[in-house]
Amino acid sequence: MVIAIMQELQMRKGFFPEHTTIETIYFGGGTPSVLSEKELRSILKTVYSQFSIAENPEITLEANPEDINGAKLAQWKKAGINRLSIGVQSFYDEHLHWMNRLHTGEGAITAVMRAQDSGLENITIDLIMGIPHMTQHDWENNLDDALSIGVPHMSVYALTVEPKTALAHQVKHQKIGLPEEEAVAQQFLRAHERLTAEGYEHYEISSYSLPGKHSRHNSAYWNRKAYLGIGPSAHSYLQNTRSWNKANNTFYLKQLNNGSLPIAETEVLAAEDVYHEYIMTGLRKAEGISDVWIQEQMGFSLRETFSAELISWEEKELCTWEKEQLRLTPAGWMIADHLIAALFL
Question: pTM for the complete prediction?
Answer without folding.
Answer: 0.90
